[in-house]
Specification:
The protein has seven helices and 17 strands. The protein has about 325 residues and is an alpha+beta fold. It starts with a helix and ends with a strand. The longest helix is centred in the first third of the chain and has 20 residues. The protein has a six-stranded antiparallel sheet. Helices cover about 25% and strands about 25% of the residues.
Length: about 325
Amino acid sequence: EIPGWDVFRRYAQLHFDGSYVRQYPGRPGADWADGFRIMCPCAQGWRNYLKHWILKYVKEYGADVIYLDQAASPPVTYCFNFEHGHVHHGDVVKCRVELVKEIVEAVARVNPDAVVVVEGNGDAIGQYAHVHLYTSFSTQTRYPCPEVFYYTFPYYVIFDGFANPPTPETIRNHYPDANKELTFEDVLNKIFLLGLRFDLCLYRRLRINDKLAVYFRKVLNLRRKIKNYLVNSRFIDDILLVSRPRLVEAKLFLGEGFLIVTLLDIRVSRSRFKLILNVKPLGFKAVRRALLYTLESEKPLDVDITGGKLVIDVPPLDGLGAIIVEYL
């Protein structure tokens, strides 16, 4: 049985003045005219309630993926209801991490292969959660730099894309210098570039022959071509990158005996260009082979090593590409 507000109000976070901490105050169509109340993760009753329903679905329905909305995405809020057991009003963050840890451990005791996904990107929560839903294109994001988080925590599994749907303004925040109209295809392109997993929560049915669906299959096929390299590499952002043309983005991934360069060309007029990488720190002796994968083809590349610099001659791209360099 789901308790009523008379029970839940005891778990709600309180401001210093005794008012409730709310989400979306004044949001049209909300159940309350002034928004939804936020529960305190330090309140044991709320923790027990969440764990009860999660474990019920895992045990009785065989659910093997649990998604915790807002676990790492809302702004930091305080709670001044000390009946919840916390000593400091800022303990809400610590309790949120503890709650995720408890849920992960409880789920694992039932099904060790089950996965717990959290909304948002959190360094502390990430040590327990299995997957992050990173909403860097959401309507709230003004200064997106997902590469900073991914570089810092390269072994976190991160999805990004269309949850909390992108707007033209938030897509433009990812492409401040682009001299073209931006579309949902550009969202897919940036996710590919960063090596993140694709989130396709579009809030509408995507039909098989839709333009976006056709393009997504092309991007996904390109990702599959480099998948075995990608899952065995570490994202290093643009470290080692010496030179690239303006409006050509390049990100690097380092593996054992190979490196990956993902490419995104947002120039209006695309042409052949050169990439220069500083590979001296890698101890290059020779290049075993270099391959270019594009949306339409794959081909060997000519490369040159001079003075610890790897020079790659890249033919015109249809937007996206990926270079695999195997070295000795």
